[in-house]
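To close the chapter, one final illustration. This time we ask the reader to focus less on the individual chains and more on the assembly as a whole: which components sit near each other, and how the overall shape emerges from the parts.
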Amino acid sequence: MFRKTDEVKVLRDPVHGYIHVDYDVIWKLINSKWFQRLRRIRQLGGAHMVYHTADHTRFSHSLGVYEIVRRMVTEVPDIAGALDEREKITVMAAGLLHDIGHGPYSHAFEVITKCPHETYTCMIIEQDPEIRGILEQTAEGLSKDVADVIRHESSNPILPQIVSAQLDADRMDYLLRDAYFTGTKYGEFDLERILRVLRVRDGRIVVKESGVYAVENYIMARYHMYWQVYYHPIARSYENLIVSLFARLRDLEHEGKLPETVPVFEPLLKGRQLTLEEYFVLDEYACSYAFEMLRKAEDPVVGDLASRLLDRRLFDYMEASEENIGKVTELLKKAGLDPAYYLARDGVRQKPYEPYSKDAGNAIWVRMHGGNILEISYASNIVYSLVNGPQISDDRVFFPGEITGRQSA
Amino acid sequence: MFRKTDEVKVLRDPVHGYIHVDYDVIWKLINSKWFQRLRRIRQLGGAHMVYHTADHTRFSHSLGVYEIVRRMVTEVPDIAGALDEREKITVMAAGLLHDIGHGPYSHAFEVITKCPHETYTCMIIEQDPEIRGILEQTAEGLSKDVADVIRHESSNPILPQIVSAQLDADRMDYLLRDAYFTGTKYGEFDLERILRVLRVRDGRIVVKESGVYAVENYIMARYHMYWQVYYHPIARSYENLIVSLFARLRDLEHEGKLPETVPVFEPLLKGRQLTLEEYFVLDEYACSYAFEMLRKAEDPVVGDLASRLLDRRLFDYMEASEENIGKVTELLKKAGLDPAYYLARDGVRQKPYEPYSKDAGNAIWVRMHGGNILEISYASNIVYSLVNGPQISDDRVFFPGEITGRQSA
Amino acid sequence: MFRKTDEVKVLRDPVHGYIHVDYDVIWKLINSKWFQRLRRIRQLGGAHMVYHTADHTRFSHSLGVYEIVRRMVTEVPDIAGALDEREKITVMAAGLLHDIGHGPYSHAFEVITKCPHETYTCMIIEQDPEIRGILEQTAEGLSKDVADVIRHESSNPILPQIVSAQLDADRMDYLLRDAYFTGTKYGEFDLERILRVLRVRDGRIVVKESGVYAVENYIMARYHMYWQVYYHPIARSYENLIVSLFARLRDLEHEGKLPETVPVFEPLLKGRQLTLEEYFVLDEYACSYAFEMLRKAEDPVVGDLASRLLDRRLFDYMEASEENIGKVTELLKKAGLDPAYYLARDGVRQKPYEPYSKDAGNAIWVRMHGGNILEISYASNIVYSLVNGPQISDDRVFFPGEITGRQSA
Amino acid sequence: MFRKTDEVKVLRDPVHGYIHVDYDVIWKLINSKWFQRLRRIRQLGGAHMVYHTADHTRFSHSLGVYEIVRRMVTEVPDIAGALDEREKITVMAAGLLHDIGHGPYSHAFEVITKCPHETYTCMIIEQDPEIRGILEQTAEGLSKDVADVIRHESSNPILPQIVSAQLDADRMDYLLRDAYFTGTKYGEFDLERILRVLRVRDGRIVVKESGVYAVENYIMARYHMYWQVYYHPIARSYENLIVSLFARLRDLEHEGKLPETVPVFEPLLKGRQLTLEEYFVLDEYACSYAFEMLRKAEDPVVGDLASRLLDRRLFDYMEASEENIGKVTELLKKAGLDPAYYLARDGVRQKPYEPYSKDAGNAIWVRMHGGNILEISYASNIVYSLVNGPQISDDRVFFPGEITGRQSA
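The assembled structure is written out below.
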């Protein structure tokens, strides 16, 4: 019923070998303007400042998520059997498009727009004439169905579990992909094994008991990637610099002193929700160019922060104790630097895995040999220990290293 | 004598494991503004349009070349013994900086600037206050020495052979790196083995006879990377689009009709050699932003070509027979499209290895068990066959696929 | 119609990820006594004397060949379409069993038995009660059909092409597997790509023109594996030692002086064709134990050669010039060693690929874009050069290094 | 002072790239008869019954341990600085020889000999004329020094910590090697990173705080390898079969009914400590041949158990509850099978890491940024959770599956 491509299209991918496309609708979505824009958004925010090869994009990640979803709905017998063709297409499209509303610099930008990227994602799916058109021409109502997967409002609860839960195509792709492109080994886990142990029970994706080791491995991979890559202080330092620069620009805008050179930022700085057109051009290429222009801004704070971003003269950091914060504030004053822009405090905390939450999609479930289904922390002593052990956190204060006489990070 | 870093600095790299830095001068060069700019220049021109993960940069490639040079001058006993400390630093710096003058979109941009990137590289090394300063503070005359390696004018002929010859750090890094980031296996060869079989004889780097297989493998890797990646028609299609867009812009400039929005391109379009300052800002981020602005240009050719670049609606291609060119020209006329911008002809040809040339640096030499030294095509039947076999070429004509009713590439 | 296993059985394999078994007949064959015996036969003859990790077995190789066949008959649409279910099972079983008649020490043993392993393979398939029983219970006549694939006498000529031709499951598995277990990179090629470009035309497996690069790569991989692994002089030295030991034992047998300790070798040394029962026990474990016993044999030649095999004191080697052979013969006489056992001459020669032969199965065919089918040396300049270039050979004389005062190899 | 090889000898190894040998004494030890014997002892006991490619040997593992030790004593500045040349050679030799006394089938054989392999290891090092000779000719007293490392009695406590502690060359090699040859990913961890974070403080090897993640990863790798490979029930089933077969043989020996065919086993079955000569021939090849002979033994239990080992008809298994054991015993009686040989009970338990013990070598120590040294469970919340969480155990009863009507494992 749904139109296939003439022959299976394949895109070479180092993580998955190949991305396979056999539905026409998927091929058209890939070739759409908004999807191609993801080539201009890096997958990771500041991590490429730590891992110099981490320049991979949301474009390749989105293809990877699609590919894992495709394999789940065709190669996992229980899932293949639980969905009809329309649902399979819906969830493959949702996997492909789940990040289409992502802005530059990963989650740093959400702090600035004060709007989660999922909001833009759904707007684009349901309102962009091209994307919406491709979906609706394929099947009436498909654009809403796809957006419903993103919003976790699907009538079939398995669909959002496939794309975004605790053991889902999104996470599985990004761990493997980020490990590959940073060159760390921490994110590696056994995807083939996990796909083999997935089952469906009572409208819920579960893992066979014999797959518990593979899941423990995955949980540890995730945990280590958080601390070694996503929460690396240098990555956070970079992201804090971006936030500081925008804070300064917004303050200048309020004072009517915004530099002329940044038309792309204007709607953002005025604090209004961006139209899709305005949002479209806000990719990392535009931002980088804007920073280059701002380098020569009259305002010394703007010029300094923009140069730091481009030339990688990042803020240094310390543990965020009251004492340290006091000391830094003092030194900044002496150096004539405004702590509003030159001091950032940022705490992150993460457990390897957080099971307790309202909906089934937010835990990993295990089907025991005997048949009953347990939340994984009851099926795995390792996970139990991790869930009930102390939480790990990392609170830091960021500031220009020069004020202490030390080199920048 | 030369200052070392406090402890060995390491940068994680998926190709080499780690990049090791132990000289202060190298660390400072890495942190310089011009070197950091290489983060904004992709390693490959249009190949990321074929291989969606090929977003790696000249920054990581340059670090990789440096690392191979470092290993050659420390781990290969013959080379370590043939160079003094200053020469080692010279050649490590040259490896690091060899691409510092590279513009956006790889060699496509050299067609537009009509200036090989090596010219800018030497200018930056010898004239940029920061880079030159770092080098001269390390040792008087070092900036000229480093530039001399790039220019193949070193007093010690081994230095340029290390960085850029037929079996050199530059080629060895890019083959491995491009293979890794495209996900192809063609570029893989046995770097460890090659490093182990290098020797120095009569001021020339040679390979032990037992290393011939490893070199054959390397030559084949190079050959396959050319045809599968560097010369892939879709990559060339993208690069031709860029050349067409600039051709149109230059023509508009001559007519005084240049769109307002592209100040960064102005010096380029006026056909004058760019100052280092002007050249500095011309990274791929600036270009991409400029294309985004040009999308809405009044001139329909500019708008169309810019959109095609951003949305990946590339030119289709055929064999460049007279017949095909005639047919395409005809169809373009019917469609009202100017062949000056909508038809590109582009021929590439490559032998796996080309030995004959003036200087020793342009061949691979083998020391036979008996002691005599042969050019590799006389030491390897395989290479002999390749060198004396027919040359492979690929001539194509590129054009908008729509005129033939086919989809774009 | 053909019985499936309860669920897909999977065996983890580093080369293929997993081996997948879904037909009951395949599962039963794997669990048969003769197939399990392959665990006691190494894949490579003497190469583990060069590459200390090359202890992989015919058991894992046979599973790998089966897996590639399985993928060819299910994932390559043209092949899947050209065969019925019985033919698919026939060729999968043939892939699995193609080496079941292999004796110890790879091809060295065939020199001793004077009987190619294919003869035993067909005997086992058609006569062993267990194997024959499993096949005939699955479908009448299946054991003959399977053996016919081995004998290249199938009614459908595609079947033997899948298992054993120039681009077949056997070669593809062993190149990848031997590369993995020796730790060399030479044998790697892009299996996924090759599977994607296979087609069937006129009852013949062909390769799409766009797959020529992948095939060139495969041909080079094969060529390099021959010279770096299979024909490595140290591997040949080991194999020649085995042949020498058996020559001595046979001579002793003729003289009625065979040591008591080797009942397993008796039928072999008497020069008669072994029964399947006698052949069954002749695995590498039995041979190694017999060598251990022979270490203490009264006959000094036997004792010395057996000790050399076990303690890896292999023969040294030189180019097999008349002069060298003369010199070695002279030195052996002086040392009181009989050249009949202490001098081995052994020449190997190989082209990367040999196209010309009687049947279609012995060449690689390419379907050009235009539709016509060419033998690959006419479709690839590289292959043309290799086929028409000089042949590479390596003739050596092997002897105990001590006689020259040099250390053993 | 200590003699070097002419040039660095290298052995290709898939885990480490190359094994590098530059001391003459190491090269001679590798070429000794006892060391070459390790080619005939697999690294893993029964795991090759689960992972069909796990045929790697103690020979390659021993080379790998040596290589890691070599890197530790040359590339880790603190360790290189803490040892003199003789100590470095001592510990490299100890790494190489640490398993030289290993018998067949890993630890299963120790159950039979009732003698830990370390006892034989020290005997061989101190008493075998060849090994002892090589060591003593290198330096007087060296054989005792090497054996002292194995016995954890070195005067310098760092030496045994390098070879065998909680984060040592032995464990690091076997995790990586077993992961590679089984094809599982669980055993992978970041060896390069760990080598980079090692330090020496107060005569103790410690890890820099920034290396804690790498160590957590290593601990998890170890944990998963235990449960997925070393303690896999099928591997244990195979090992239990060996123990049962020997139990039966010993009982027959007591009754004076030992089959004639197994002279190699005799000293073992008579329960006396084996001489080195007797022990030498007891490799896996001899055992396998002996099993083949025993297949036809008059005693039906011996014949059956031997056939099961060779043909992989292993015992099935269940949880070792009292109820299950009762049921199995009952069924065995009905089937006329003696539980003494046909029922095995086997419990394993493991924590990912066990810190508390008498000596420093049995914990992993972390040097915190501030300078103080903590046992890792106090430096890592993850490890703390694991150490203080519930212990994981697995108790099984093994028996012939036929008695329950189920297939064998």
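Chain B has 22 helices and nine strands. The first strand of chain B starts at residue 4 and ends at 13. With these observations in hand, you are ready for the problems at the end of the chapter.
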